[in-house]
Amino acid sequence: MVSRILKSFFFKNAKGKAGRYAQNSTRLLELVKEVIGKLQKVGFRDNLSEFQNGVQLLIRMVKAYASGEYRGLPWKSLLSIVAVLIYFVSPIDLIPDFLPIIGITDDVALVIWLLKTLSGDVSKFSDWEKNEKTINIG
User: Which of 32, 44, 116, 128 is the most exposed place for a label (fewest CB within 10 A)?
Assistant: First the structure.
């Protein structure tokens, strides 16, 4: 399914927008708000907690990058994250979100694929995030 999503017009469109978003902190933060809104609207079940936790991690990565706190994220990885989040918030994609239950399937598959693909960057960010909390608390 992921290969179909990546080849789709909808994902290519999201990739085309990603660079413009990534260069603008305000647009990145607006995207984060849209993603949070969609997460709340969809109201995920417990069996999608891996997905929800993954999206929240991506949100934190984008926020830290946009604020300038974290710059350890390669540009290519940032573009991939932003493209996936743009795809996620779009109601019309490979499987339209208005279709009950199955409408979110493509979004879930894409986010989980991205987290696995960028596992090294995700791990580095998670380590950085833990160290930041330790420094700020201590």
Answer: 116
